[in-house]
Amino acid sequence: MFRAIAAAALLAMPVAGAYAQADYPSKPVRVVIGFPPGGPTDIVGRPVAARLAQVTGQSFVIENRAGANGILAADYVAKSAPDGYTIYLATTGALLSPILSPKLSYDLFRDFAPVALVATVPALLAAHPSLPVKSARDLAVLAKAKPGQLAYASSGNASMGNLGFESFKLAAGINILHVPYKGAAPAMTDLMGGHVQVSMLSLSILQPQVQAGKLRALAMVSSKRAATLPDVPSMAESGYPDVNADNWFGVLVPIATPREVIVKLHAALNTAVDAETKQRLGAQGVDAVMTTPENFNTFLRSEFTRWGKVISAAGIRAD
To answer: Domain total for the chain?
Structure first.
């Protein structure tokens, strides 16, 4: 099926460049992730990589290159050979880091070619059980009574948790200290340990801890409730309709990657993100999707504009 889809799509495309391979993939493919193991990018990446291996007959190996909110991973992939054997499972950090650090050695739109948006995950606002709040509104009231005395954890500057929380702070007129971590997993660990009081991380990573009673869910940072936590209200229901921090995950490759390879990789992804994969990810609060490269490019530019405004208003700075 994979080869049939790719062959059909190639009929309308020109001959690819020197890196193109008719039998792509013919060797293992590295799937680079910019965060430590155990975070939401892993939760999305590993099952998709496993299914890609089944579809293509070649290994898709996860490679975690954590640090600087995805900058290290993005820089590595941007400088990799444009042959389809090093791909980047990107999220918000890769998109927004260039806004925070204009002198980066890579540019998202100059150095990467989009392949597909593969998943979205709503964020969840959660608190340590010791904090005397049960809703987003309660948190706002407490924060106003104790300005600067509460702290929230994120997976790094310009991560979706940072952006979403800053949106909440602007909407509620509150002051809560930001504590950035090198990924969602360590941020959640300190939240559970009570070292920080609240966080806004992906539903996929917080949901098990909420269901186990180790954290308290306050609100879905989305326009709607989550099917897996139906009793948790959305931010819109909580009185903050403009606070929406759905995270996203998409595949990028170096800009010089031949179109033939991009088409074949997209075809493999399209087959891999099937009903079984969607059900598996859905059980963890992940919405599996599949876009064309063109639609993913449009989405990236829209997100770049939207979150750039939040970065400016909140005065978010690079690490």
So the answer is: 2
- Report pLDDT digits (tens) over 27-79: 999 999 998 888 888 989 999 999 999 999 999 999 999 887 788 999 999 99
Structure tokens given for 72: 């290290």
Same domain, yes or no, for 35 and 142?
no
User: Domain check: are 7 and 107 in the same one?
Assistant: yes
Is 242 inside a domain boundary? no
Per-residue pLDDT tens for 85-94? Answer: 999 999 877 7
Provide the residue range defining the domain that includes 94. Answer: 2-121+247-314
d(CA 170, CA 77): 35
What's the predicted TM-score (pTM) here? 0.77
DSSP run (H or E) holding 94: helix 92-100
Phi/psi for 171 (5° steps) reads -70, -35
What lies within 8 Å, CB to CB, of 212 at 6+ separation is none
Neighbouring C-beta atoms of residue 179, cutoff 10 Å: 16
> Of the candidates 307, 279, 285, 268, which has an alpha carbon nearest to the alpha carbon of residue 5?
268
Does any domain span residue 113?
yes
